[in-house]
Each structure stands twice: as C-alpha cells, then as structure tokens.
Design a protein that fits this description.
TIM Barrel, binds 5-hydroxymethyl-3,4-dihydroxypiperidine, 16 helices, globular, 3-stranded mixed sheet, alpha/beta, single chain
Length: about 450
C-alpha cells in the first residue's frame, strides 16, 4: 500500500472528487487564550469557569493554547499537514467587548494577522461566527433568552463580513447550536448553566432567528459568500427497548438532530417540540429563519443514548452499551453510524456536505522518547474516513473533511483532561508536539491528492 508505514492502517481512498477539501478545525475560546488582552471583553465562559465545580480541575481558558500569540507556529503546522482549509471561529467578545456598539480595533487586527498568515501558507480560511463564547455583556441583557439578540448577532455578522469578506468566502453562522442551547439552557452543563425547559425553547428559537438574520446580513455585505451552518448530527438510541426510553430517544433526536437544521433548511420545527416553541414564534419568523444556504457543515463523533428521566426535557443521557468499542474518553466508536448519518443528512437536506468536525478524544501523554503515539486515534480516523468514502460511493454529496482538532485544547467542562488534538500541547510550556496521527493525516491527505498526468493535468 503506497505511503503506508508497516504498523499503521491503510489510507482510505476517497472516490475521485476534484476540489475535495482536507482541513482541520478549532474554535476561538478553546485555543486563543489572551482572555483579557488587547481590549477583549469577558464571555459567558470566562465567568462559568470561575464557578466552583463547573469545569474539571477548575481549569480556565485564560491562556488555553496561547494561539493569540503563537498563531504563526500553528499555521506552520497546518502547512506541514498539507491541508487546503482551516476552520476557526471569531471571538465575538474580542470584536465587540460589550457585545455590540464599539468595535475593538485590536481584536479585528488579530484576525487580519491570522488571515494574512493563512493566505501566505496557501490555506483557505473558513470563518465561523459563533462557537459558544457569548459576550457576558449580552448575557447580562438576557443573552439567547432575549429576542433582541438576533439583531445584535446580525450586526456582528455585518461587521465581520465587511471586514474580512475580501479574504474569506466560506462563512458559517453557528457551530453546534444544539450543544450550546441544550447543554447551556436545558441541562446546565455549559455556560450560562441554566436547566429549564422554557429557557431552552426560547434560546433555541432565538438562535435560529439569529442564524437567518445573520445569513441575510452576510449575503448583503458579500453577495458571493458561501454561507452555511454547522450541525452536530448523531443517531440517538434508547438505553433500553422500553416505551419510555424509546420516547426519550425520540425527544433527544428532535432536540439534537432536527431543532436547528429543520427550521433553517426545511422551514419546519420538529413536531415533538412545537408546543414548547410556539409561544416564542412571531408571524414571519419561519420565513426569516429559512434563508437559502450554500452548504451543510456536519460534525459527527458517535451515536448517543437516552433514557427517560424527570428532567426539564423528560430525558437524560445514558451510557453506551458496555460491549461497544470506545475512544480514550469513552465515546462509542461506530463508523457505520457515521456513514448512515452522512447518507441521511444528504437525503434530508440536499446541500453539499462538508464534514466540519470528526475526531477522537483521549488522555495522550508523550512516551520516554518524547513522541506521542496515538494509534487509537489513527485507527479511528482511518475507519471514519473510510466510512465517509463509503457514503460518497453510495451517493452522498460530500465535498470536504476537517479533523477536530489541530491542537489539544480547552475541552469545555472537561477542561484540559480530554485531548482531541493531532498535535499535543504541553500546556505549562506551550510546546507543540505533533502526535503520530498528525503524520498519518498528512500522509492520508497526500495519498488522496489527485495524481498529475504527464501533461500536468489532474
Ligand atoms: O471540542 C468540541 C467542539 O468545541 C465542538 N464539537 C465537539 C468537540 C469535542 O467535544
């Protein structure tokens, strides 16, 4: 097998698709650090991390990967990987320390520097507006519970599109709206830490409205932008075959897989949630939410499980069956579920799909030689990329794949314990050590690069 070292899995070969994009993803809050530098305002996560017991080991993202200062080294790593695109998010509180009003020139200048470095490396920037770091000043005014936030978000989108749209074509409005609302407003696991069914429905609807208004704002500022949103879609299974657990899984599926993609692309809410949402829906909202989009961002890791419980939404997370193989952080490994999710997403939404996150978490440590062998992650990536190739052969329109993540980073409530990077970060020194999976991914990309004919044409 070409390019394959004896001990590593063969590289999955994708069906030939000219222009297929290989990339990596990160998010601002998880890597940037510099939390109070150059005028950045606090986000809801800065305060959440300071509440006792919210984040493992009391970790904060004040420094994180110090990417704010070390971005040239990180872009250098991307260049070594041979990727074509880098998905990152912009920190709303770095741009608008108060969430709106006065824009922070130094915050904007940071993203100018990053975009220039990417251009220099020949890497296309994919810019996501929101990866969960809501400005605290807006939360103080109600945050996602306030309908006004849709307009605040659209104003932020307008500024970003005007400022960076000369160098960015690919814009995403939200990353995983399901996680930030479900975990942040229904389960209380993420910032701002609310556990209330009514708050969840309000927040969800306002996120959808904000998505629609921001889509229009970007389009108005940059008519040639390619706009999408990024959804985490995973099969939801009942913990047991009981009718109560089956209903719980159906409700989790509505909240997790359909509550955002269905209204934004199909102009309809899941029937299971209509009663909870209807008090917040004003005339004209569904048309304002369902704006034309250019692509679908799919994040996928593993199936999830639900059981009936007396919680605000009537379900609770359940453990995966014991016999299922698991990643280092205990997530089930099920590449066939990825293939099926890709096919189902293709059939349901009919948009070109980019896999914007996929990867494996673990508790990696350097060995005695200083190398970081992560064979488990390599096996995971090989199996999942292979499953993606199967979905492509079965007809799914998949145009790109981004690994989560370039770097070990601040993994929300798990702090720095769970490492998803293909580059190890030694947080006390900020030294970057490419893991074995980094080399594997680089070789996988190279093995799938279109071969040039003698005439130099692919
Ligand atoms: O780290 C997160 C990311 O922020 C959103 N998607 C899942 C990743 C792993 O948990």
């Amino acid at each position: 097998m070409d390019h394959t070292a004896p001990t590593e899995p063969a590289f999955p070969h994708l069906p030939s698709r000219p222009g297929f994009i290989w990339g990596v993803s990160t998010s601002a809050y998880q890597i940037e650090g510099a939390a109070s530098e150059d005028g950045r305002g606090p986000s809801v996560w800065d305060l959440f991390c300071r509440q006792k017991g919210r984040v493992r080991n009391g970790d904060t993202a004040d420094i994180a990967c110090d990417h704010y200062h070390r971005y040239p080294e990180d872009v250098g790593l991307m260049r070594r990987l041979g990727i074509g695109a880098y998905r990152f998010s912009v920190s709303w509180p770095r741009i608008f320390p108060q969430g709106r009003g006065h824009a922070n020139a130094k915050g904007l200048a940071f993203y100018d520097r990053l975009l220039d470095a990417l251009a220099e490396a020949g890497i296309e920037p994919w810019l996501c507006l929101y990866h969960w770091d809501l400005p605290q000043a807006l939360d103080d005014r109600g945050g996602w519970l306030s309908r006004d936030i849709a307009g605040w978000f659209a104003d932020y989108a307008t500024l970003i599109a005007h400022r960076f749209g000369d160098r960015v074509t690919r814009f995403a409005t939200f990353n995983e709206p399901n996680v930030c609302t479900l975990f942040g407003y229904a389960l209380g696991w993420n910032a701002p830490g609310i556990a209330d069914a009514e708050c969840f429905a309000r927040a969800a609807h306002h996120v959808n409205l904000a998505h629609g208004m921001a889509t229009d704002a970007i389009r108005a500022a940059r008519p040639h932008a390619a706009i999408g949103a990024i959804h985490n879609r995973q099969p939801c299974h009942p913990a047991t075959a009981s009718p109560a657990d089956t209903l719980a899984a159906r409700r989790l599926d509505a909240c997790w897989n359909r509550l955002y993609a269905d209204p934004t692309i199909r102009a309809e809410y899941p029937p299971e949630l209509e009663a909870q949402l209807s008090p917040w829906i004003a005339p004209g909202d569904m048309a304002a939410i369902a704006r034309p989009l250019d692509w679908f961002g799919l994040n996928h890791y593993s199936p999830i499980y639900a059981r009936a419980a007396e919680t605000p939404l009537g379900f609770a997370w359940a453990d995966a069956p014991r016999e299922a193989p698991q990643t280092g952080v205990g997530w089930p490994i099920h590449p066939e579920a990825f293939r099926d999710t890709l096919l189902e997403t293709h059939r349901r939404y009919r948009l070109p799909i980019f896999v914007t996150e996929n990867g494996s978490g673990g508790h990696d440590t350097p060995d005695e030689t200083g190398a970081v062998p992560d064979e488990g992650r390599i096996a995971y990536l090989a199996a999942y990329i292979g499953a993606m190739a199967d979905a492509m052969r079965a007809g799914a329109d998949i145009r790109g794949y981004f690994v989560w993540s370039l770097l070990d980073n601040f993994e929300w409530g798990s702090g720095y314990d769970n490492r998803f990077g293909i580059v190890y970060v030694d947080f006390p020194t900020q030294r970057r050590i490419p893991k074995a999976s980094f080399g594997w991914y680089a070789r996988c990309i190279a093995a799938n690069r279109p071969k040039l004919s003698r005439a130099g044409v692919a």
